[in-house]
Amino acid sequence: MRSFLPAYELRAPASFQTALELLAREPGIWKPLAGGTDVMVLFEAGKLPHRKFLSIWKLPELRGMEVSPAHFTLGALTTYTEIQAHPVLQKEFPLLCRAAAETGGIATQNRGTLAGNIANASPAADSPPALLIYDAELELVSAGGSRWVPYNGFHTGYKQMLLRPDELIRRIRLPLRKDAWRQYYRKVGTRKAQAISKVCFAGAALVAGDEIRDVRIALGSVAPIVLRCTQTEAALKNQRLSAATPEAAREALAREIAPIDDMRSSAAYRLRVAQNLLAEFIAQIGNGGRSHR
Amino acid sequence: MPEAAGKMELAFVVNGEKRRVQAYPMARLLDVIREELKLTGTKEGCGEGECGACTVLLDGAIVNSCLVPALQADGCEIRTIEGIARGDQLHAVQEAFIACGGAQCGICTPGMVMAAVNLLEHNPHPAEADIRTGLAGNLCRCTGYVKIFDAVVKACQARGVKA
Question: What is the complex's ipTM, to 2 decimals?
Answer without folding.
Answer: 0.95
